[in-house]
Amino acid sequence: MFEYIDLIRNNFNKKAAKIHTKNISKFYRSHGSKGYEEAFNYIYNEIKDQPFEKIEIETFPLNSSEGNYPAWEPIKVETKIIEPIVEKLISFNDIPTCITWYSKSTPPGGVIAEVCDVGYGLNKDDYNGLNLKGKIALATGNSPEDTLRTYDLAVKTFGAIGIISDCLISPIPGYRTKEITPDFVSLNRLSRKYNDSWAIIISGRMGARIRELLKKSVVKIHVEIEAKTFDGEGKSLVTTLKGSDLPNQEIIIIGHVTNPEPNANCASGPALMIELSKSFFSIIKKNKLLKPKRTIKFLFVPEGSGSIAYVENHKKNLKNIIGALCLCGIGQNQDLSKSFLTLSRTTDSTPSYLNDLSYSFLENSVDLTNPSLKYKEIPYSPFSDNSTFNMASIPTILLSSEPNIFFHTQFLTWETTSEEVFNVSACVIGGIALFNSNANLLSVIMIINLTKIRSQERLIKKEKIYNNQLLKKSVNNVEEFVLLCNEEINYIIERDSIAIESCKNIINNQLTKKFINESKDELISHGIKIKDNLKKYASFISIT
Amino acid sequence: MENNTLNIYPKKNKNVTPPTRVYDGDYRDMDLTYEQLNEIIHLNKNVIKFNQLRSLVHEIYNFSNGQNNINEIAKKIGFEFELKIDPIFVYEFIKKMEELKVVILINKLDK
User: Which residues face A222 on adjacent strands?
Assistant: First the structure.
């Protein structure tokens, strides 16, 4: 493990990764757009001369009529207050995150309409006494779902011509709120299946300004939007570093190219992948490592549509994928963004050794590279292409930066990334990929052992929580409580036993089988011990 | 209800791509309105937030392997996300997934 971290640390060009982020994030990269094409070409040009066995461009339709994502491209947004004063509000040129995805154009020349404040506008009652017909609804919110809901009510039910909202998604108390970060304009989206009107996002400051004006008089706003929804073509870049011994076994590294300008967190995924692949070839060329035994594939995709198309089009070969590593926001400067490098586990429905191996790489990469960096492990989080792969029963972890003060706003620029974080992320992702692709019997024994030990640690952690709850006397029915704890212990043992078992996907022989069975038995014994302890402790607490 | 959910074993229909989002505007993706989703949320005795739905519904689908009944799925996703999930919550989404032909339901009593 440590040798891979060292190799990548010494061969990964973190400066270049940051520059790629800068270059990719200058394009507005919505599905099927010109900006996506330009970002894609940039990546392709960086990749094309590398000695991959295969560099393929896979295409797929972007058309809602067949149930796919449609292609969508914004061209222009100009908005200004024209009554009671004339004042510029927001424009696409200045703040590209202002247009909500899948918005439709206004008529040429735009529309002028009165504004009606609907507040959050999440419930039908919020619209009592309001006449929205032909007006623009002024809304607010804290999540993308809020904007979808308000749009449904204000536009589709109550007849508004569009909405303007200062919805700031993913607020972080104390760091990211409309009051603390009043100029943030965060990306929102309408349903990709609607295409009947529009929504514009403004900052908290602009929202407050309009509300202030509304207290005194009628407010009219001019909105001009040019955006097109069309049948287009999705494009993914798939590169293959073919395994020398076991080419049919694959490890996938996936990052997405899509998102608005700048969204550097999303751009940082493909940026890292470009440099990671270069570092692999550099390591091989310097004879510091033989060519990997198993195949490593890099997938540069439009988020969602690209991974769905890949899973659909490669159905027959999915069983060959040992595991996938998904990247999203892996280069954030932690001081600026207040973020942690965050490992989101595979789904519990697809237990895998990959979780504990990945966490171990994360822990050791930080320790060896930059111990001041913060990191954490969280349960399955379905917010990138990891969800598509996990839904296809392919164990897939997600490495990201969470939370992120600048998340999906105009301030999420390449300057908010950090070379140090890129370096650690490269060590984690590259390390896991190389370790898996070169895994031999010894490595498999190591992973089995690691998974067992971490599972035992999880059980001990649970035991402490149960004991504390008993000690605090916060349990009403001790008997029921112990039963539930036992069920949870059994669940962890069952899940982690399957994770240990998943090591067979790398090497399946008599020795690994024996070691797997012994480790599972040890885990069960450990669980029995914890359950016994809990029973004794609970009866002691009950008596006292 | 408990007896019913104990007998129902949902299984993924691999020929149908599951929706990736739970709420994508009314009657889209999961074909459930905002009100219907809130009704399902409120069927659960313990609080579930709207923005937790995506993870939970993904796992309801992912655990639908024909081996877990509704109650087992509820228990497992509860442990996974450290929430208390009632079988009725899972059942409502499974019913919808069946309507969308995303899963098929195997009733153990019919086996």
Answer: A80, A112
